[in-house]
From TrEMBL:
It comes from Gimesia benthica. This is Dipeptidase. Residues 193-351 form the Peptidase M20 dimerisation domain. One of its GO terms (molecular function) is metal ion binding. PANTHER family: BETA-ALA-HIS DIPEPTIDASE, SUCCINYL-DIAMINOPIMELATE DESUCCINYLASE. Coiled coil: none annotated. NCBIfam families: PRK07907.1, PRK08201.1, PRK09104.1. Keywords: Hydrolase, Metal-binding, Protease. GO terms for biological process: proteolysis.
Length: 457
């Protein structure tokens, strides 16, 4: 039966690409209130495609953009798989850096170029098409499926947690699947088994009630910019270790098996530096670059501003300085506890004569899944058959908060199966998605349903 599915996918691939083109034409920018109707049109497109594939589907209204829900639950005794994705996209700015308009998809050099091509319309769409292939050739799926496709991922998913908490019966499953990550490199498929968590905050340091003449008052009052610079400098020691008290207390150290896996991956550090335009790598001592990027906690300044930043000099003591800080976290660090510890640490570094305001933005925990689980084994088999080589097992340095939500609210782990590349210009001009990866990802998805059906639940 799998051969019939393969044949169907091959025969209809051109149509799938044409449908994706139509999907990518919809400017479903969730952050832009003037495009609310277009964002809804993106949801309606997804619902229509689900129904055409043979799923029961509905739009579920939220306080923001709707959630598209689809399901097929007739495989008695078989696992239930929840597929998550999002139909909203990032704003396309800056427009002048696009080679072709962001919502006029262009196919060139074996890629489709458009906003949302790989994040996440193209990747998510592979799973709808794989369901279609099974339903049109067999009339049924080997597993039960639930689709939750939201329209607010790019603006924080404010309404998703509420939907999941209030509809546990609708989203009950044995495993979740997300395709919103990347392969390790061209020709090297990957399964991501770990994500870093995050905490994010802003610190505002105030001094005099207004900017002061640096000649008249300089040296007599504490300069907020100078003070904040010292506070930020205190966050790390000379070995790159974060100095927030308790920061490393609950860190799960890398197993030697994982360190060996990372070391075996093809990684050219010289090319890495060249691609980024830097002269050296840096970070926590005694760890490799991949280990630092994927599996060690960090603390970074994301933005810092104070005083006059226009053209030419303006000799002042600024009244205020502010900094945005984020920490990437690993299991089992607690973002709430570390946010409090960061605030207290900075307060203790605050120079006399200044006051501090601390703004807590958001946080989520880091996660690591068992890469020897039967679900991981099923995914490895499906990907190897579709891509022609076994996937490598990697971690991701970024955060996907919904993965923690699935674990905490739904009680399931997630298969992170990315078909794109880190070089696909996600969130940037000229976003793209390989048509070959689109084909391989759709086949891998179809094969995954068969492999998961062999797991006893």
């Amino acid at each position: 039966m799998v051969e019939h599915v393969r044949d169907y996918l091959e025969q209809h691939q051109d149509r799938f690409v044409g449908e994706l083109v139509e999907f990518l034409k919809i400017p479903s920018v969730s952050a832009d209130s003037t495009l609310k109707a277009e964002t809804r049109r993106g949801a309606e497109f997804v619902q229509q495609q689900m129904e055409a594939a043979g799923l029961e589907s509905q739009l579920i209204e939220t306080a923001g953009h709707p959630i598209v829900y689809g399901s097929w639950k007739k495989a008695e005794g078989k696992p239930t798989v929840l597929v998550y994705g999002h139909y909203d996209v990032q704003p396309p700015d800056p427009l002048d850096q696009w080679q072709t308009p962001p919502f006029e998809p262009d196919i060139r050099d074996g890629h489709i170029y458009a906003r949302g091509a790989t994040d996440d319309k193209g990747q998510m769409y592979t799973h709808i098409k794989s369901v279609e292939a099974w339903m049109k050739t067999k009339g049924e799926l080997p597993v039960n499926v639930v689709f939750v496709i939201e329209g607010e991922e790019e603006v924080g998913s404010d309404n998703l947690d509420r939907f999941l908490a209030e509809n546990k019966d609708l989203v009950a499953c044995d495993i979740a699947v997300i395709s919103d990550t990347s392969q390790y490199a061209p020709g090297i498929p990957a399964i991501t088994y770990g994500l870093r968590g995050i905490l994010a905050c802003e610190v505002i340091v105030n001094g005099p009630r207004q900017d002061l003449h640096s000649g008249v008052f300089g040296g007599a009052v504490t300069n907020p910019a100078n003070g904040l610079a010292r506070m930020v400098a205190a966050l790390h020691d000379d070995q790159g270790r974060v100095q927030i008290p308790g920061f490393y207390d609950n860190v799960i150290e890398l197993k030697q098996e994982e360190r060996d896996q990372f070391a075996a991956l093809p990684f050219d550090e010289t090319k890495f530096m060249s691609d980024l335009g830097v002269k050296a790598v840096s970070g926590e001592a005694d760890f490799s670059t991949l280990e630092r990027r994927w599996a060690r906690p960090t603390c970074d300044v994301n933005g810092m501003v104070s005083g006059y930043t226009g053209e030419g000099p303006k000799t002042i003591v600024p009244a205020q300085a502010r900094v945005k800080i984020s920490c990437r976290l690993v299991p089992d660090q607690d973002p709430a506890a570390l946010t409090r510890a960061l605030e207290q640490f900075l307060l203790e570094q605050l120079p006399a004569g200044l006051t501090m305001q601390f703004i807590d933005y958001h946080g989520c925990k880091g996660l690591v899944f068992d890469f020897n689980s039967p679900y991981m084994a099923a995914a490895r088999t499906a990907i190897e058959q579709a891509f022609g080589r076994a996937p490598v097992m990697i971690r991701e340095g970024g955060s996907i908060p919904v993965v923690e939500t699935f674990q905490s609210l739904v009680g399931v782990e997630t298969l992170l199966l990315g078909w794109g590349q880190n070089t696909d210009n996600l969130h940037s001009p000229n976003e793209r998605f390989s048509l070959e990866a689109f084909r391989q990802g759709t086949l891998a998805s179809a094969l995954l349903w068969q492999e998961l059906a062999n797991i006893q639940v």
